[in-house]
Design goal:
- It is a single chain.
- By secondary structure, this protein is an alpha+beta fold.
- It has a domain of 86 residues.
- Helices cover 34% and strands 10% of the residues.
- The chain starts with a helix and ends in a 30-residue tail after the last strand.
- It comes from Tessaracoccus aquimaris.
- This is DivIVA domain-containing protein.
């Protein structure tokens, strides 16, 4: 009896290895997801937009009450900046990616109203002098005296410290 169990175990392991090598076929590239997509209308976030909006619920997502309140404030024109919007994550909440897409639309409208990036497709220009607009990399100027007391630091002016082994 134990021989039959060992043989069945080896067959199962063999099939698992065979499947892991991809010999049983691949998953379709256009796989179908069974999660609801909701309905997000085109255009600006306004009363008409809200009538056609259906945000799907997820197991964990943004608090529907907080999102609905914020979108109501957006329509009324009393909301703060969309980039500062924060929502609690709760069970049976709104799909986070859909809400984030809506917030992106609100942010784009806010930037357009401020006159930033008015042309379609124009990049957002931040007035922060510590951000390189070509690479979005933050940089901070280092004062000249920052390393004056560090004698064992290699710098272009001093080269390697004398007591270190130089690479061959």
């Amino acid at each position: 009896m134990w021989i039959a169990i060992v043989i069945v175990g080896l067959v199962v392991l063999g099939l698992a290895a065979y499947a892991a090598l991809g010999r049983l076929g691949e998953m379709r590239p256009d796989a179908i997801t069974d999660s609801p997509k909701g309905r997000v209308p085109e255009g600006q976030v306004d009363a008409e937009f809200m009538q056609g909006l259906v945000i799907p619920l997820r197991t964990n997502g943004y608090s529907p009450q907080q999102v609905d309140a914020f979108l109501g404030e957006v329509i009324a024109g009393t909301a703060g900046p969309a980039v500062d919007a924060r929502f609690d994550v709760v069970r049976r909440g709104y799909d986070m990616s859909v809400v984030d897409d809506i917030l992106d639309r609100v942010t784009a409208r806010e930037r357009q109203e401020q006159g930033v990036g008015e042309a379609p497709g124009a990049p957002f220009v931040d007035a922060n002098p510590l951000v390189d607009p070509t690479t979005d990399a933050a940089f901070r100027p280092v004062p000249e005296t920052a390393f004056d007391d560090a004698e064992d630091v290699a710098t272009p002016q001093r080269g390697l410290p004398e007591d270190t082994d130089r690479p061959a």
